[in-house]
Amino acid sequence: MVQPTSIPFTVNGRAYRPPARPLAVICLDGCADDYLDAAMARGRMPNMQQMAVRGFRGMARCALPSFTNVNNASIVTGLPPAGHGISGNFFLDPETGEEVMMNSARYLRAETILAAAARAGRRVAIVTAKDKLREILSHRLEGIGFSAEQADQATAATHGISEVEALVGQATPTIYSAEASLFVLRAGVALVEKGLADCLYLSLTDYMQHRYAPDAPEALDFHAAIDGEIGRLLALGVRVGATADHGMNAKQKPDGAPNIIYLESLLREEWGPGVRVILPITDPYVAHHGALGSFAVIHLPDALPSAPIARRLMGLDGITEVYDRETAARKLELPADRIGDLVVLSARDVVLGRTPDYHDLAALEGGLRSHGGRYEEMVPFLLSKPLSAEYGARAAGDLRNFDIFEFTLNGCRS
Amino acid sequence: MVQPTSIPFTVNGRAYRPPARPLAVICLDGCADDYLDAAMARGRMPNMQQMAVRGFRGMARCALPSFTNVNNASIVTGLPPAGHGISGNFFLDPETGEEVMMNSARYLRAETILAAAARAGRRVAIVTAKDKLREILSHRLEGIGFSAEQADQATAATHGISEVEALVGQATPTIYSAEASLFVLRAGVALVEKGLADCLYLSLTDYMQHRYAPDAPEALDFHAAIDGEIGRLLALGVRVGATADHGMNAKQKPDGAPNIIYLESLLREEWGPGVRVILPITDPYVAHHGALGSFAVIHLPDALPSAPIARRLMGLDGITEVYDRETAARKLELPADRIGDLVVLSARDVVLGRTPDYHDLAALEGGLRSHGGRYEEMVPFLLSKPLSAEYGARAAGDLRNFDIFEFTLNGCRS
User: Which residues of B touch A54 (CB under 8 A)?
Assistant: First the structure.
């Protein structure tokens, strides 16, 4: 393989100094630390365990809301949402008044590290399980970008690569599967093996974490399989950094029923039909979570004052934080123009809904495990190499998951 | 040894059904989950690792503020602070106007599980590293209660036991040591071995966690030694439950200086000398934290309104939550009469101080690692036996560290 270039570059205020070796940053979607704990305690993740011992393992704080698009955008820009503009998977576009998916790169307000690395001469590839992320992650990228979900649709003209199934040696997986994530990692291995890329971003899906608790046999097998693919990357000499976009918690009552506060029903009954609740977890993958997470934004008609509604909401059991727009923008690092008049977070075991009719609870497979709030904020952060003194001191502070590219490129001792 | 009694009892609204075997609940003071991760990844905690695999390991939410007295009181009563009345290590007593330590059992507003177990015929022993906890933990206890710190002062009349050093085979340790915790565990082993107790509460000290990060050799050795003593308990047939009173985070800037917001200085300059800031982390063990934690309460003169001060505080970087008295009592489950007019929490890497003069930063050994806030709320929760279906379902919800006695006594399958 050609030696990767090591030309420094700067993007979004951070300077990157890539080493002349292949690199992979992995986003373990929905990987609460408990999943690693359960698998490692059983000896099922020997490669990640060696990363923890010989490299670095710590806990990082993700961007809020603890959702996939928000945090993938943060990871590939090195910025909080206030900087990159992606405030959820879904939002009420103030320019059109429409509720839309936030999958388009036109919502992205910053350059990506990946595009900048490619301009600096790296052979960049992004592989994502969910196709919804591909456009944002590939924004202005001169390189390879495809999803496992639509691997069979990749063409050289549109994705920088074709014949992906042949490359990976596997048919395009269904998105509701462990294979959707494993395909991403196998694609990463194949891209390095074939000399097609030397700077990878591999973003998995949290289907398995939504469905299974950390000590479920299915979750253990899944994480063991992830570990095996990471071992293949390490064996190829790839420096690996891994973090998660968000954690995951059970959001149900002891009887197994989802633990839901229907915010729009409650607020419209008390404050009229003009109140509109947006659930930024909403995405095309309804079997994951039924659009139920621990974060919501509320849009109020001009005539309604927000303070009494905020007080009312804070009076409810299961609601843990309520902020007005300005406070949310400042404290949660959100773009003020892309949130609601109020921002609401719920408890570790509570999700926020709109109305009972809005959610298809029958679509949930198994119990409800979800994310979006404060209790899914802390995520694992691992590197295959030990930190330099400078980065070790930084890691001892308020490490963020969107520091992962800087730490992987700049922060390691070897 | 005489077979332990298995007579059920009820206290503070919870029914306990102790099995006819020896039991030990361990409070791993300041044991953020990272400490277990770092030691287990290196194979240094084989007994705890086996508990995780064959019994149960999960994450529990502690009581806020995430301080020692608060959470030890919660663990031994099964109640949040609103129920037991211990709101900190230190508080402004509204009855006297004095700032006092909250070590006295006269502040305790609930019975303890330990006293009730003793009344039901169990041979109860509590052993605590820090003597400050002994009075609260031993409240109305017909049994054994002593501290490692003052082991040489235990007498049958006052502590239910004498000659503790001979029992343990070790001299009274200094409180600023790993031995202060290990002495507690060794005492527990000796009490079971000698048939002196069959229901133990063993509460360690977080000196090592305040001083060392999870992957420091000293922390790894400490946790390996803890694991060895837990292994001795397990070998004696003791059912073990273990949790922590609070987590632990570095609270410093990259240059190693403590990251402090001096609240009283700031508020007195803007709002006059009547503003009084109380730091409920304050305790006699200043080398641990210099009275610097991530939680403070503010007492205001009657003439000052709290709302603008709350807004001012929320405007500060590093302040994450500000509540008025009523909201704090409800959302943080605190006794309203034993907190301030405002309650303030700070960020993962930020502590709250009074004034620069108030704190003896020179007393801090090494960097500042501390706790008290939201980012030290999640703690490990382990049992040596697998959960029953009923308790497994409960564990999947919002498990609390003060559920540990109920889970250890009632929740296991064998």
Answer: none
